């Protein structure tokens, strides 16, 4: 094989079935957990909704595979998951949650997943954007360049947004105190809901 001259452009690998299988294997657990943590519990878990929405994200990734940024696939998937979740919530029946307003855009209301009333109330007073940033960081481990990619802002903008959200969380927590207010991933099911392409079985990485 001839040597590649220095500075010559490197042709990326084709985004074919093998590429998609690698993408699915690497990130299906993270995307499934994104939904499981943010959906209301159904019989002890997020159930088929989390599987369906995970499959929708990966089906979108396949259809728009030319748009996925190289080496930033997971932030792109998280951002797509946010849009998918927002659309799903608009279709759901209203859920009455004390002190946490329902929002029409891509939000992560903790009331749907957390049983700790104090934490739920504190997060409920934050803006939808602050809640989203804090949960991406705390639940999904997204920070730095990945957070910037998810939010569609610069690295500096993402760092500043996270810092502001944390500051407002501390302020809300202190205000509450002053007021005296003291899974296993079903990979097979997700795969069955992903229309393209057909993939070999993937083992749960936690097993």
Explain this structure.
The protein has 207 residues and is an all-alpha fold. The chain has two domains: 16-93, Orthogonal Bundle (Rna Polymerase Sigma Factor, Chain: A), CATH 1.10.1740; 104-181, Winged helix-like DNA-binding domain superfamily/Winged helix DNA-binding domain (Arc Repressor Mutant, subunit A, Orthogonal Bundle), CATH 1.10.10.10. Helix content is 56%, strand content 0%. It is built from eight helices and no strands. Helix 2 packs across helix 8. The longest helix has 24 residues, at 155-178. Residues 95-115 and 198-207 have low confidence and may be disordered. InterPro entries: RNA_pol_sigma-70-like, RNA_pol_sigma-70_dom, RNA_pol_sigma70_r2, RNA_pol_sigma70_r4_t2, RNA_pol_sigma_r2, RNA_pol_sigma_r3/r4-like, WH-like_DNA-bd_sf. Keywords: DNA-binding, Sigma factor, Transcription, Transcription regulation. Residues 23-91 form the RNA polymerase sigma-70 region domain.
Multimeric organization = single chain
What is the rounded Rg? 19 Å
Shape annotation: flat
Distance between the termini: 40 Å
Order of helices and strands: HHHHHHHH
CATH topology of the largest domain: Rna Polymerase Sigma Factor, Chain: A
Total count of helical runs of at least 4 residues: 8
Instruction: Report the uncertain regions.
Output: 95-115, 198-207
- Estimated structural class: mainly alpha
- Beta-strand content estimate: under 5%
The chain-level mean pLDDT equals 74
**CATH architecture annotation of the largest domain:** Orthogonal Bundle
Number of E strands: 0
What share of residues is helical? 55-70%
What's the story with the biggest beta sheet? none
Look at the structure and give the CATH class of the largest domain: Mainly Alpha
Estimate nothing, just give the exact number of structural domains.
Answer: 2
Organism: Oerskovia enterophila
Keywords: DNA-binding, Sigma factor, Transcription, Transcription regulation
GO molecular function, one term: DNA binding
Domain RNA polymerase sigma-70 region: 23-91
